[in-house]
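Fill in residues.
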């Protein structure tokens, strides 16, 4: 059993470092190309899930897959910090420990991630998930049985591929933040 995690391609806001949760924006032309290249790396799977947000749905479609909408895979709600860069907020702010005012707490995001982990493990087969950077980092932490705050340690680039799985019946990360497909033309 392997879970292929796909972070969506580039958007104008990811390019500028703006926090994007519920603002539903499209991929840039670069992001569209990244999504096509990402799709070439993915194996056939009978379960494909995608966040309901446009940037993830577009990445899934450009990867030539039809994904089932999964509300739990939506990005962390940044509340009052929506659209702001880290420096505009506070260079010392840590989303993974503090959450965002008017948005979600780490515990709330972990609850969504836990539901999704349960769904993926119940599937008993390979699956692909198109989602967002901060949410996928919490999902990986929860897959491993770590606290949501420890998602901080799992950096993710746009259009990256990561793989969760098992070794000797224990959850592991088999691949993380691979973007090698973006340099292959």
């Amino acid at each position: 059993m392997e879970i292929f995690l796909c972070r969506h391609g580039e958007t104008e806001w990811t390019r500028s470092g703006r926090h994007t949760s519920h603002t539903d924006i499209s991929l840039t032309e670069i992001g569209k190309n990244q999504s096509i290249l990402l799709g070439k790396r993915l194996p056939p799977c009978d379960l494909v899930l995608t966040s309901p947000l446009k940037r993830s749905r577009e990445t899934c479609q450009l990867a030539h897959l039809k994904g089932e909408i999964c509300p739990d895979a939506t990005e962390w709600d940044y509340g009052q910090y929506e659209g702001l860069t880290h420096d505009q907020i506070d260079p010392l702010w840590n989303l993974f420990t503090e959450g965002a005012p008017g948005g979600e707490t780490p515990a709330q995001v972990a609850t969504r991630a836990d539901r999704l982990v349960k769904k993926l493990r119940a599937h008993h087969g390979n699956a692909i998930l198109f989602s967002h950077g901060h949410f996928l980092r919490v999902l990986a932490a929860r897959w491993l049985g770590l606290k949501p705050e420890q998602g901080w340690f799992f950096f993710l680039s746009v259009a990256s591929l990561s793989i969760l799985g098992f070794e000797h019946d224990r959850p592991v990360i088999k691949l993380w933040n691979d973007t090698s497909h973006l340099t292959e033309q």
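The CA atoms of residues 48 and 112 lie 17 Å apart.
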